[in-house]
Automatic annotation (TrEMBL):
Species lineage: Bacteria, Candidatus Methylomirabilota, Candidatus Methylomirabilia, Candidatus Methylomirabilales, Candidatus Methylomirabilaceae
Catalytic activity, reaction form: nicotinate beta-D-ribonucleotide + ATP + H(+) = deamido-NAD(+) + diphosphate
Gene designation per UniProt: nadD
EC number: 2.7.7.18
InterPro entries, per the entry: Cyt_trans-like, NadD/NMNAT, Rossmann-like_a/b/a_fold
Pathways per UniProt: Cofactor biosynthesis; NAD(+) biosynthesis; deamido-NAD(+) from nicotinate D-ribonucleotide: step 1/1
Organism whose genome encodes this protein: Candidatus Methylomirabilis limnetica
The protein's name: Probable nicotinate-nucleotide adenylyltransferase
Length: 238
């Protein structure tokens, strides 16, 4: 039996907050691998200073290349139209079969929105959802702020708070249907992609917020630079 983590996101760009959360969850749950799934973005939504899907995919690739148990999937990029996590998880289910366990990893900010996602209840049934802590959001808000409509939409899931140090692979495996949503306290880094894009735009350093390979890629491809800025200005960040 394989235990596979799946972490979706726009990864614009991928940063050490994503990587560290994934790393801790990988070891704590004894996963076999974690696959990062960059989301495509509908073309009309692409904003001027955001990176294309291919650039984002390439950066996830560069950030994970030295970690044998991290990989990147183009599954949402090759699918036309909007990216829905439920469809991605259905495809992973098909790929891995019912005998393997899938863990869908998301930050608490993303989970707070989940009732608005396509087929949210179905999504919760396709994978064991792992919600990772993130600075600025409290894990206990997840339950407190959920309205009864939202709970119902999600099929009244059970929530379980766990310290990363208290998790074992057995904890994760022991959960039978209906699975609780696991809220895990990871060492969360206060890093966001939007902050990184802002720093690059201002020509400031992003070193130690992203891997060196990603910083170099951003510089080389002049991502997140404003068109009006002088050429030299964006380069300080690399
Ligand atoms: P943006 O600022 O553009 O929204 P982001 O930093 O939130 O970017 P996303 O690509 O939106 O990054 O996030 C992908 C997933 O990773 C989401 O589930 C999000 O909650 C989670 N995540 C992002 N940053 C962190 C972090 N520092 N610690 C833990 N989880 C995170
Ligand atoms: Mg985000």
């Amino acid at each position: 039996m394989m235990h596979i983590g799946v972490m979706g996101g726009t990864f614009d760009p991928i940063h050490l907050g994503h990587l560290r959360a994934a790393e801790e969850i990988y070891w704590a749950l004894g996963l076999d691998r974690i696959t990062f799934v960059p989301a495509a973005r509908p073309p009309h939504k692409e904003e001027e200073f955001e990176a294309s899907a291919l650039h984002r995919y390439e950066m996830v690739s560069l950030a994970t290349v030295y970690t044998p148990y991290f990989s990147v999937s183009p599954i949402e990029l090759s699918r036309p139209g909007r990216s829905y996590s439920v469809e991605t998880l259905r495809e992973f289910r098909k790929l891995y079969g019912a005998e393997n366990a899938i863990y869908f990893i998301m930050g608490v900010d993303a989970f707070l929105d989940i009732a608005t996602w396509k087929e949210a209840q179905e999504l919760l049934s396709l994978a064991q959802v792992i919600v990772a802590a993130r600075p600025g959001w409290r894990l206990d808000e997840v339950e407190r702020h959920m309205t009864s409509e939202q709970r119902q939409l999600l099929g009244n899931p059970r929530f379980e708070y766990v310290k990363i140090s208290a998790i074992t692979r057995e904890t994760a495996k022991a959960h039978h249907e209906p699975r609780p949503v696991l809220l895990v306290e990871v060492v969360s880094l206060d890093i966001s992609s939007s902050e990184i894009r802002q720093l690059v735009k201002e020509g400031r350093s992003i070193r130690y917020l992203v891997t060196d390979t990603v910083a170099a890629y951003i510089g080389k491809n002049r991502l997140y630079c404003s068109g009006q800025k002088l050429i030299g200005e964006c380069e300080a960040s690399t």
